[in-house]
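Figure-free illustration: sequence to structure, shown twice.
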Amino acid sequence: MRSLLALVMLSLCFVGHTQTSDEVKVGDELTLGSPSTSSYVHVDFPQKNFIIKRNGIADMKKMKGVPVTVVEKVEVNGFTKVTLARKDGKRFFRMKKQVTADLAEAFEAGELVL
């Protein structure tokens, strides 16, 4: 009985998750959440050594809570890729104006939040 209940709850989580990633469209505002590891995995930020080489500040902790807007949404091989830009118009790490992200994986890992 408990395993059946757990299975139903798990399936409802996945159904709710797919609906939120499908509801995102160009122009929507999202927020960067905390990275799943020491750096973001599903949001394609440059590696720390590239950020430092270009005189940027490679502090991933400062990205948490930054509002971003969806500039472009593309379906690639069944995955939804989005291009994100900061809402305040600044650059990410003083070097990149836009970054890409795998929408479903970033939502699941908590790296992007509605």
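We now fold a second protein in the same way, so the two outputs can be compared directly.
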Amino acid sequence: MRISCIIAMVAVALLDPSVLSAGTSILPPPNLNQAQKLVFFKDHLKGVPKGSRLDYEFTNATQGEEGFRDSIEIDVVNVVAEDKRDLEFNFLSGENHIDFSPAKAYTGNPVIIHFLERDISMMAKDTGGSSGYFRNRIRDSFKNPSLVREIKFHYGGKELAGTEVVITPFVADPNTDNFKFYVNKRYQFIFSDQVPGGVYRIHTQVPNEKEGGILIDEDMTFRKITPAI
């Protein structure tokens, strides 16, 4: 099934699929905080040349179920301008595959949008709730993130500098009776200009409040870039 990119959660609205496919320019609203700018209005693919492939490792671990390990790939088909690229995607495989539409003249790294789109779809499926409701909660949580800080992390045998953003969208939600086990779900994002594509990691965890431990753990981490030949 082909799914367009419909969850570029800017500060004022969700992006329409046609915005991403047509490369329509979106100007950032005023007074955005650092987290909102990092997630939605940064040229993450700056300097990544035509013909490159960004490769991310994706892992899922769910209590009582068989987990899996897979990959997410972004192909830079063309560099339209310094900050705009045509992109194609291979998002997971087999029964987990999602056929996201190509993006035209895109600014930023859509792996953020794709990860969250899948995450929201899974929550809606599990609870019978509205995808729009979960999108709005996540979007709004970037206005007041739980944590924004500068960090160091290791990649390729080197210590790199990055920015960590943590959100907990459902902690103070008054409507959690319908999805109680997601109340304390935590999202961690690590951004770094020292990693090709600008996104090093997206990590979500759902704690098991009744039995302890982690009920659901999903992690997407940058693995490598394959340069243009």
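Summary for the second example: The domain at 2-226 is CATH 2.40.360 (YmcC-like fold).
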